[in-house]
Amino acid sequence: MNAVKGFFLDEWYFALPLVIMSLISAALVIWRILLNKGASTDMDDFLPVFQQTLRKHGIKGAVGLCKEEKGLIPSRLYIAGLEAADQGAAAMRRSMANETELEIMPRLHFLLAWILGIAKIATMVGLLFTVISMIQTFDAIGQQTKSGNVKGVAGGADKIGLALFATALGLFTAIPLVFGHVLFKDWIANFEIRIKSSSHKLITLVTNYKKDPKLLDQLEPEEDEADDRKKPTRGARRG
Questions:
Q1: Which of 39, 139, 172, 235 is buried most deeply by CB count within 10 Å?
Q2: Do 54 and 216 meet the contact criterion of CB atoms below 8 Å apart?
Q3: For 166, phi and psi rounded to 5 degrees?
Q4: Burial zone of 204 (CB within 10 Å; 0-12 exposed, 13-18 middle, 19+ buried)
Q5: Is 91 in contact with 139 (CB distance < 8 Å)?
Q6: pLDDT score at 133
Q7: Residue 109 φ/ψ, nearest 5 degrees
Q8: Dihedral over alpha carbons 70, 71, 75, 79 (to 10 degrees)
Q9: H helix intervals, 84-149
């Protein structure tokens, strides 16, 4: 404990930048966690309400419902798809794909570059401060050796261990950041899967709604049997 106290008091000009980076990194991680929480929506609870709204109030009512939600899937993805619903399923897919690429994914990756950057910089800064401190320490030891001061040489050796606290503090900052960055990337990958699944469900619901609002409870759109009946078979064409 005395060594740690000595590092923060005697080598404060090395400790201060590392402590500041640690505080900034903690704030960024907490900020990103709050953003992830705000971006999520429990689709199991939202979809039944969405289906009921779509059945009773149509596409405009469904858009209004999505605008009231804070999650990215209803407020961004579903609105983009519903606004293109009049142009067909292909237009809905394009609209939602563009919204995902240009709006949703940048929001999900917000702050991740800063988190990883500080993790790498903290390690290098800690190592740099250690090297600078050790250079100063060896220089002091050399001067004490020339003057024949044995106690001064022993004190310089103690400062070598003190200098290593800069590297330790840099790693203390970097390791949680790297771990958090990996978890955030995994969360984004899972969120992309949810986006694809939700996009498919929206197209299914809108397709069924256009055919018959009673079909909204079905998972897959029914095939248009009337169109199939109109298409002649090969045997009929030959006949």
A1: 39
A2: yes
A3: -65, -45
A4: middle
A5: no
A6: 79
A7: -90, 0
A8: -160
A9: 89-99, 105-108, 112-147
Asked if 203 contacts 81 with a C-beta cutoff of 8 angstroms, the reply is: yes
DSSP state of 74: I
Q: Which residues contact 166 (CB under 8 A, 6 or more apart)?
A: 7, 11, 14, 15, 18, 126, 127, 129, 130, 133
What per-residue string of b and e applies to 156-186 under the rule 16 or more CB within 10 Å gives b? beebeebbbbbbebbeebbebbeebbeebee
Q: What is the token pair recorded at 178? A: 């790297």
**69 pLDDT above the threshold of 90:** yes
Q: What is the pLDDT of residues 111-140, one digit of tens each?
A: 999 999 999 999 998 888 888 878 877 777
Residue with tokens 């519903």: 82
Question: How big is the CA angle at 47 (ends 227 and 32), to the nearest 5 degrees?
Answer: 125
Long-range contacts of 33-38 (CB under 8 A, 24+ apart): 35/107, 35/110, 35/111, 36/184, 36/187, 38/70, 38/71
Contact 165, 4 (CB under 8 A): yes
The closest of 83, 172, 166, 178 to 132, measured between CA atoms, is 166
| pTM > 0.85: yes or no | no
Q: 153-181 pLDDT, tens per residue?
A: 445 555 666 677 888 888 989 999 999 99
- CA-CA-CA-CA dihedral for 16, 20, 25, 30, to nearest 10: 130
The token duo for 53 is 């709204």
Cα-based distances in Å from 238 to 37, 192, 226, 231, 232: 62, 49, 22, 13, 10
The SS3 call for residue 37 is: helix
